[in-house]
Amino acid sequence: MRAVRWLVPFLALAACADTPQSVTEAPTPPASVDPSGAPGRSLDGAEAGQLVYVPAYSHVFSGDGERDLLLTATLSVRNADPERPIRLEGVRYVGSEGQTIRSYVDAPQALGPLATASFVVAESDRAGGVGASFLVEWTGGAGGVPPVVQAVMISTAGQQGISFVTEGRVVAEAGQP
């Protein structure tokens, strides 16, 4: 019951949001991006890294399976290391058939200590289908803390809403086939 008490005001505020972020443009880099991450420069000791798969339920079915519900999906990449930057090498939105729908990072981008980068798929975007996902490739110094990579899906209609989070899963480590 406690969870419902905080969820209702949150959903009410979310329903009042202005216009959604456009999905046709790459997002503005976070204000805390480390300037040492300019394209062409490498992070000192860049030995660690991963490819992370994150389910993105931007399109789900309800009821008898013929009604669909479109959700806004926000990918959040959080550098959990309080001392070291990481580098986002690539962020791709992938459709149900495994095809790349769009790339959000055209050039490597540094993410400073404890900084977060987010990437949005608008609620009206049907391109990914029911099996959409994100692939996030990051690198950083050996011994650093891996980032927290999650997707948050949300939709509100009238006085009802749905929201949930998916966790990223490491599918490849740097330097391993």
Automatic annotation (TrEMBL):
Signal peptide range equals: 1-17
Instruction: Recite the UniProt keywords alphabetically.
Output: Signal
InterPro entries linked: DUF3124
Q: Where is this region: Disordered?
A: 21-41
Listed name of the protein = DUF3124 domain-containing protein
